[in-house]
């Protein structure tokens, strides 16, 4: 049986599949050619990340398809219910990338509170001629320790983010309409651990209380943060989105950044991905990454191995 890993798969995943008799194809097929490629090559399994979409047209056109797999958490690029109605298994890897995404959240937070995203732009340009001026411009940093982190969505990635925040000495609050409370266990290198219970509260109270806000939710029909929600927040709040584009009103965000209401934003995902708006890309108060939350070697190894395990279990 053949597996098309159209957005790539780790070597560990390939080896696990090949060991069990699968042929793994890692050729990148253009979106409009996926259905033809699947049929022409008798592909049984299609694996994607966030780039390739598997919609109803591909599902209808590929009667030999048995599994659609998503290397990651969100499934919004797959017509999941329709695929299942056609007897196709739909799998993903919800636990594999949590730590990597959480670490990227803190990369943005640390960058924002110490202005690294802006100083890294300006030091190469002015570091040799305006060193003292830049030193003054970036001298008003903020510590994360002792501050309140508001986590919107306290699922696996939200919990991984909470663990890191607790380790830094932050207060953690959360809002999640599906998880009323959760016990978060922070493990230390020597086998010791602490456990704390986080009780979900209203979004409105979180927006009012948090010094920093991070989003960990699936794709939404509307904005979670727009002009109304921004007005509720503390002056000088920091906002990070490593979840999905379209959950923050980017026009309202830029306005809030320009006014000083929001101190900084960290964005890994965008409304108009993969063509983010120039107003976002050029704003010196935004720390930017190109949708790389799960893009670590460790996470990709876990994702590949977990996908392989599920495929083998379903088809062997």
Keywords:
316 residues; Rossmann fold; six-stranded parallel sheet; alpha/beta; 2 domains; five-stranded parallel sheet; 38% helix
Characterise the protein shown here.
Helix content is 38%, strand content 20%. By secondary structure, it is an alpha/beta fold. The chain has two domains: 2-95 and 297-315, Rossmann fold, CATH 3.40.50; 97-288, NAD(P)-binding Rossmann-like Domain (Rossmann fold). Strands 7-6-10-11-12-13 form a six-stranded parallel beta sheet, with helices on both faces. Strands 2-1-3-4-5 form a five-stranded parallel beta sheet, with helices on both faces. Helix 10 (227-232) links the parallel strand 10 and strand 11 (237-241).
Overall SS class: alpha/beta
Number of domains: 2
Approximately how much beta-strand content do the residues carry? 15-25%
CATH topology of the largest domain: Rossmann fold
Q: For the terminal residues, how far apart are their CA atoms?
A: 10 Å
Total E-strand runs: 13
Summarize the biggest pleated sheet. Answer: 6 strands, parallel
For CATH, the homologous superfamily of the largest domain is named as: NAD(P)-binding Rossmann-like Domain
- According to CATH, what is the class of the largest domain? Alpha Beta
Label the CATH architecture of the largest domain. Answer: 3-Layer(aba) Sandwich
